[in-house]
Amino acid sequence: MIAKKIPMRNVRLSSFADLVTYLSSSQGIHNRVGKIALHNFQVENVDFAVQDVLRVQDYNKSTKADKTYHLLVSFANGENLSDEQLAQIEQSMVEALGYGEHQRISVVHRDTDNLHFHVAINKIHPQKKTVHEPYRDFKVLGEQCRKFEIALGLQRVERGRGNRTGIDMEEMSGLESLLGWIRRNVADGLREAQSWEQLHQMVLENGLELKQRGNGLVLGAGEVWVKASSVSREFSKAKLEQKLGAYRPPPVDLAVPPVKAQYEKKPYSRTDTSRLYATYQAERNKTERRRREQLEDLLYERDRDIRSIQAKYEFRIRLAKLGGRRNRTVLRILSSQRRLELQSRRSQYRWQCRSVYQQHKQQTWADWLQQQAAAGNAEALQALRDRGKQAVYRGNQFQGREEGSGLAAMRVDTVTKKGTVVYEQDGYTIRDAGQTLHLADVPADPAVEKALRLAMAKYGRRLKVEGTQDFRQKVARIAAAADLDVEFTDPLLEQSFQQYKRRYIDVRSRTRSGLGAIDGVGGRDGIGSVDGAAGVKGDRIVFGERNDVRSRNGRVDGAVRAGAHTQLDDPGRVGVGAAPSSAEGGDGLRGVSERRLVRDPGRTQMLLSGHVSGHLEQSRAADHPAVRRAIHRAGSRLTAADVFQAVVGLVAKPGSKPPAFRRGYLQGLSALRSLFSPRPAVTFVPAQQVADPVQQYINEREEKRQKGFDIVHHRRYNATDAGRLIFNGIREVGGHPVGLFKPAHCDEVVVLGLSDYARRRLAKLKLGSEVTISKSGQVRISKGRNR
């Protein structure tokens, strides 16, 4: 688990609106954006929340710091936490940083191999209008990570000093770095050296060189060098001198051994990717050549136009000079026009160059493999999966040894850099990591069936199923309902599958013999014909869609496939089916099979009496709002003319400027495509209404003082107490910290609510220390000596 602040290097470019737009945009990937939560807002819309944050940030004009805090929390590959657990982690970390009362928007991203979420925090307090900058936030985040790694059983991540630049480059580009190559191939041999001569000898055998630079040692060859301490702390100069004595350079007469291995900048993979890498290099060179040719053409056209502009104005200026002093104004105008025209042409050239670079952008090795894998290249997909070690996935999944290769006949949403293929169909996703098929925590029945068929195509008929007990039972039930030829490695799961299978065989036999249907028009019981057990298609039970066939005499053979297998969990009980009734607010006419059903093991299924009129009880009039016409008010319909008159006053004339409060909402026509892409649901988390801990503490102390205890008077801090006060301690009231302070001019105690940040700062002070508190209640610790 990793949590870190993503800093904005240029404060002037920091924008809360741009950050939220990036976080909440799907970027063409269906499963990229997960849950979006708004905290401490009075609105439930992301756009309105962003405008509210910008309004609050505009109040503070004195600060020169960045007004937005960007927090990123990421988890190890294979760890899949629920939204409730993510919300718990987010709340704890934000409160530890001192931003519990600040406005923030959190977004969960699931488009990579590592589940992660972003939090955009407004650093300006919504009431105090002061900016808050956490002290040593990296230490606070590290402590929070360790706490949740223990509590949730997450993978432990070592934190501290270390150079990860080379390792990060491998993850991003897919090419092996010198630092990673030394760690994997040379480090073990260097640990066995017992003298400086042996150490130099082993370094030379690997085509490297060890030499002193500054106060440390470096390893490398040619133009690529790394610090020896970045390979491992035991290779620092101080540690090596403790082990081998004072540093000695390699002797002049040292025999150069034959090179056994040498670093090459090539793809890092467990399999041979030379053919793929050669294709990648050829395409990269082709892209570079095209880009260079287009840039040369643009440069030639720019120089030609600039010469033409200069020649044109030189001629005009020469003519203007013939008029003497009277034409000085004309000369100034001509000079200004020439300067503006040259600036315009140079700006156009820069824009054209950026367009060329964007059109012919060079891809890294990992990005190119992703593109090829998404296009169906099985070799590129395998190369992605062989880059690093396979992750151990948790949760609901199918496992097996892959027999098929390539992509399934489903829509590929994205391919991650670890080779995980994310399929998307009908709103659900399936993650294919090669040896595992991973599903959501609570997958829908169609998703389970699709994943089950995909697993059989990839791994064969013998499958291993991991996950919750409900998921395993759902797999067994759906496999039996779909009559799949599958076998499970778990004996208990296989036993459940066989039990479900026998039940469905019994249902099929009853359906073929006609016991599951009763005449609805002239039948003995006067009830509509329903095959209540399951819909039947051919020789197998189907589900997930309606399978009704209505004949002339009013018989209905078949049932809602989605409810077919859900009623077979316990065939011996009496219960109510899951289909909603028309009396509960359904729209439109429905077949009899969609009504709520009651199951009796001794009889066929029948309609509930509360939802049936005419046969089981006296008929009554049905009332439903869907049959009424939409009217504006009683007695009058809303015509098209009325709508036009209501809207025409809201439309401004062409060319007019929008009001100031609406200018931030105008967008280009290109934004219309976002209207047709599904937007994730937004969870509104209002500010929590909790009891006032300050007043609770004051009431408790005053109650004891009234009983005769020797306690001084306590009261709430107010703006007139601003200035220097004496720190008198910290108390916890209902989990909320409050600070006690004594004014210098009177014998009483003022009580002030504290943030977690202020509590941590004050906890390091001795009682009786002097602090400064502003009118808004912000605590500042006095530093240094008063002069």
Automatic annotation (TrEMBL):
Residues 566-590 are annotated as: Disordered. Pfam families: LPD7, Relaxase, TraI-like_C, TraI_middle. Residues 31-154 form the MobA/VirD2-like nuclease domain. InterPro entries: Endonuclease_MobA/VirD2, LPD7, TraI-like_C, TraI/MobA_relaxases, TraI_M. Residues 413-499 form the Large polyvalent protein-associated domain. It comes from the Bacteria. Residues 694-780 form the TraI-like C-terminal domain. Residues 168-249 form the TraI-like middle domain. This is Uncharacterized protein. It comes from Eikenella halliae. The lineage of its organism: Bacteria, Pseudomonadati, Pseudomonadota, Betaproteobacteria, Neisseriales.
